[in-house]
Amino acid sequence: MSESQHGADATQPPANRKSDVPTRPRHVDRRSLILGGAGLVIGAGVAEETNAVARTPPPTEPNIPSPGEELMVEHGLLKRVLLAYRAAGDQLAAGQTPPAKAIIEAAQLISTYVESFHEGLEEAYVFPRVRQHHNDLVKTLLAQHDRGRHLTASILLAAGDDLSSAPIRDSLRADMAKFVRMYEPHEAWEDTVIYPALRTLTTQRTLDQLAERFAELENKQYGDHALAQMIDRVSGIEEQLGIADLSAFTP
Questions:
Q1: Residue 177 CA to its chain's centroid (Å)
Q2: N or C: less crowded end of the chain, CB within 10 Å?
Q3: What is the spatial distance between Cα 240 and Cα 81, in angstroms, rounded to a whole number?
Q4: What would the pLDDT profile of 58-75 be if each residue is shown by its tens digit?
Q5: 147 vs 42, higher pLDDT
Q6: pLDDT by residue (tens digit) across 91-139?
Q7: C-alpha–C-alpha distance, residues 74 and 67, integer Å
Q8: 3-class DSSP state for residue 88?
Q9: Do 155 and 172 form a contact (C-beta atoms < 8 A)?
Q10: Contact 155/124 with Cβ under 8 angstroms?
């Protein structure tokens, strides 16, 4: 029987399947081998850690944030009020009349939470612990706290007056601009110098005690979920001023 009758030569691999003859292995350099091995080790470590986290039962009690973390979150709240002040000032500059209620509520939030509570914690518990190393900075921060309270009182007074009056509008706009200009660097210096210094200069035991003390004072003065309540208040202020949509700030 001819080859044409039996089909293709049996010594050749079928066209529709791979050859049984092993091909020459691709050269792998030492660097690739080391990096590949490292990747396997790292990958295995991450997998083990992920599994360990998954097996960890959830805490029975909520974690209390560290003093620095708590104060920085409160700074986030302050930043949003500064945005409200800036928006109201822009509206005044454009000849518009922003809702007086929004400005009053923003200033009241500053007065009753930021100045009375947040700055009170800093002055009583934070500044004394870092003053020896940052005396001049602490003096400046204290002076700005005092100046801020005077500006807040002026803002409340002007916002409750006749906003159709040009002198009152100008005074209100100027005071809000001064407050924003002072507090943006103020909180930046605290976040990058004072709070890290507090952590460096204070034992973990004392930091834990401070965290518990901060939470205790906040709950006593404002009730449970105080910060969430304040965020709800600032959200309402943003709605009134038309700045509640974060995407609107995207250039």
A1: 23
A2: C
A3: 13
A4: 544 556 667 777 787 888
A5: 147
A6: 999 999 999 999 999 999 999 999 999 999 999 999 999 999 999 999 9
A7: 11
A8: helix
A9: yes
A10: no
72/213 Cα distance (integer angstroms): 16
In Å, how far are 86, 98, 99, 160 from 164, measured between CA atoms? 19, 11, 12, 12
Tell me how far apart the alpha carbons of residues 88 and 107 are, in angstroms, rounded to a whole number: 12
Cβ atoms of residues 179 and 148 within 8 Å: yes
**Which tokens hold the place of 154?**
């002026």
Give the amino acid at 187.
Answer: E
Type of residue found at 172: L
Q: What tokens were used for 242? A: 């038309």
Provide CATH code, domain 67-246: 1.20.120
Alpha-carbon gap, residue 80 to 199, rounded angstroms: 26
Task: Work out the pLDDT band at 12, boundaries 50, 70, 90.
Answer: very low
- Residues 109 and 8: their CA atoms lie apart, in Å, by 89
47 or 73: whose pLDDT is higher? 73
Report yes or no: 114 and 74 within 8 Å, Cβ to Cβ: yes
What's the mean per-residue pLDDT of the chain?
81
**Residue-range domain boundaries for the chain:** 27-56, 67-246
CB 92 within 8 A of CB 98: yes
**168 against 14, higher pLDDT:** 168
Can you tell me the distance from the alpha carbon of 102 to that of 88, in angstroms, rounded to the nearest whole number? 9
